[in-house]
Amino acid sequence: MNNNDIKHACAFTGHREAKLPWRENEEDSRCIRLKRYIFDAVEAVYIDGVRHYLCGMATGCDFYFCEAVMALREEHPEVTIEAAIPCEDQSAHWSEAQRRRYDRLVTECDFHTVISRSYTADCMMRRNRYMVDAAEYLIAVYNGLPGGTQATILYAMRSGRKIIQLPIGEKEL
Fold this sequence. Notes:
Elements: H1 3-6, E1 9-13, H2 29-47, E2 52-55, H3 61-75, E3 80-87, H4 96-108, E4 111-116, H5 123-133, E5 137-142, H6 148-158, E6 162-167
Parallel strand pairs: 1-2, 1-5, 2-3, 3-4, 5-6
């Protein structure tokens, strides 16, 4: 992929509910604020020329990002979103509510890329690298702890991507 292809794309990385202070309570004021920050970041890169967004479709922050891009797409129909799915059975062990939300979001995405037919030890990492490689920007919701989000940010830094980091925490938000 050349720089012209990635110039108008933005990927996302962020935590699942277990690493969020409010867990699954999306009515928490911190969650509501974070969703607004995500939308503002999505809109900011749109203003800079981004028209294509890539989402890893995990629970938690990925869902927030996907929904923010879909809200932006309502205002700007030229916006596209790609579901970058690590494996076909990604949602197999999620709750029924999470699977319904996932299915709805994936259905509403403009493009779908499946990295692996079934789960492998590295399919999530390969999905994250695929997204970074395809984008000029990476929006990241990160709490400072080791894990997949940190690894994705470090990969984006090494790849020379522009990173917009949105912190999590009592004081930051």
